[in-house]
Amino acid sequence: MKLLIKDVTIVTMLDDDQPFRGDILIEDDKIKEISSQVQEQADKVIQGNGKVAMPGLINAHQHTPMSLLKGFSDDLKLMDWLDKKMLPAENNMTPEDIYWGCKLSMAEMIKSGTTAFADMYVHMNEIAQAIEEVGMRASLTRGLVFFEDDKGRRLREAMELIDQWHGAADGRITTMFGPHAPYTCPPEPLKEVIRLAEDKKLPIHIHLAETKEEIVKIRDKYNQTPTEYLYNLGLFEKSHVLLAHAVHLTRKDISYLVGMRGGVAHNPVSNLKLGCGIAPIVEMLQRGINVGLGTDGAGSATTLDMFEEIKTATWLQKLDYGDPTQIPAKKAIQLATKNSAILLNIDKEVGTLEVGKKADLILIDINKPHLMPHHNIESLIAYSVNGGDVDTTIVNGKILMENRQLLTINEEELLQQAAVRAKRIVEGI
Ligand SMILES: CSC[C@H]1O[C@@H](n2cnc3c(O)ncnc32)[C@H](O)[C@@H]1O
Ligand SMILES: [Zn+2]
């Protein structure tokens, strides 16, 4: 199957490239040619005039089923929000709810230009099934909390996820280990997870230093910062690690992360909304630590539009430094594309538009009043585009949305299922 996108403005996201006009030829799941004019015939042609083609956005930290909890509980401190609202609601969720919640998030992500995401949750079988059907790319972790003795059930489920789904769905699904956070993972089980991850050569996805309360909790318990706690357990030694948040880091904490594989998923909208703080991403980037972008679950972020994260990430640093030159437009977009791809350990396949890479890309309609004129395409993407401007979303060479119509999700059925299930889940909480 050959798909040709003709006469489009191409933004590859490679450091040395500027936006240029040309054609993109996709054969099966890969980009076969990018040039000023492709000569080959294709089975389907999309006219790209008035559109920008760019790599699909990659949401590096998500809890997809939490879309069913969006708007249920806002304006609370993180620990109250989590303990008093989210966890009781999550206890009411059935595996089927999780399937539909994940689908609801995917519908929103596809409609706002996201092609891949990292997910941490429970009932991962249902999540993987939904992803297999819908066609997105994802890195999945079974979230692990070690509050009480569960006789190894959670860890067993994590291993089952890895055994059944790593490399599945034509390679679109990969897996990681997912110890939830320093405050939910004591040293012994955490060491066991680190050992297993090294053994299986799989990455680890974990929350880190999201709130000041976390800093106090870990200091009271272990007399260390959360980052020191993970460092001293050997987390950064061998495995690729995806750290979600990393808001409260000392200079010394940042130095522990230098040289790590993976990096930090910055979630600026969630951090702002929960009043957590501003992650020191400029310092991290200056010290060579990879920083990508995520939304966190819709239960906190309330929207999964990665264009909002791009804007917020750059504006926060400009404000914090009192310096508008911080995180310029192209860097901001790279956070959500090539840098997030590194976090998911899929940067050899996706994250930039290059011949031989997987065809994960989006077309943005820039022929609109709020996107006119076109002085600087990268500025337009970083500062003016929003998710609703995405016209077409392609993953692994397959069109998941065209002319804003979802092609692999029955939207009417999804909305009906989501409304009924969401109402039931929060009843009585
Ligand atoms: C055990 S599955 C994942 C677990 O994480 C919870 N969660 C969602 N958002 C956050 C956040 O910002 N910080 C910490 N934990 C979070 C979610 O409710 C699931 O229970
Ligand atoms: Zn999270």
From TrEMBL:
Q: Which Pfam families match?
A: Amidohydro_1
Query: Where on this chain does Zn(2+) bind?
Result: H61, H63, H207, D296
Alphabetized GO MF terms: 5'-methylthioadenosine deaminase activity; metal ion binding; S-adenosylhomocysteine deaminase activity
Q: Name the residues that bind substrate.
A: E90, R142, R153, H180, E210, D296
**Cofactor binding note from Swiss-Prot or TrEMBL:** Binds 1 zinc ion per subunit.
What is this enzyme's catalytic activity, as reactions? S-adenosyl-L-homocysteine + H2O + H(+) = S-inosyl-L-homocysteine + NH4(+); S-methyl-5'-thioadenosine + H2O + H(+) = S-methyl-5'-thioinosine + NH4(+)
Query: What is the required cofactor set for this protein?
Result: Zn(2+)
Tell me yes or no: is Zinc among this UniProt entry's keywords.
yes
User: InterPro entries, from UniProt?
Assistant: Amidohydro-rel, Deaminase_MtaD/DadD, Metal-dep_hydrolase_composite, Metal_Hydrolase, MTA/SAH_deaminase
Entry's EC annotation: 3.5.4.28, 3.5.4.31
Enzyme class comes to: hydrolase
Q: Which domain of life is it from?
A: Bacteria
- Amidohydrolase-related domain segment(s): 53-400
Keywords of the record, alphabetical order, are: Hydrolase, Metal-binding, Zinc
- Give the protein's function: Catalyzes the deamination of 5-methylthioadenosine and S-adenosyl-L-homocysteine into 5-methylthioinosine and S-inosyl-L-homocysteine, respectively. Is also able to deaminate adenosine.
- To which protein family does this belong? Belongs to the metallo-dependent hydrolases superfamily. MTA/SAH deaminase family.
Q: What is this protein called?
A: 5-methylthioadenosine/S-adenosylhomocysteine deaminase
Organism, by scientific name, is Paenibacillus agilis
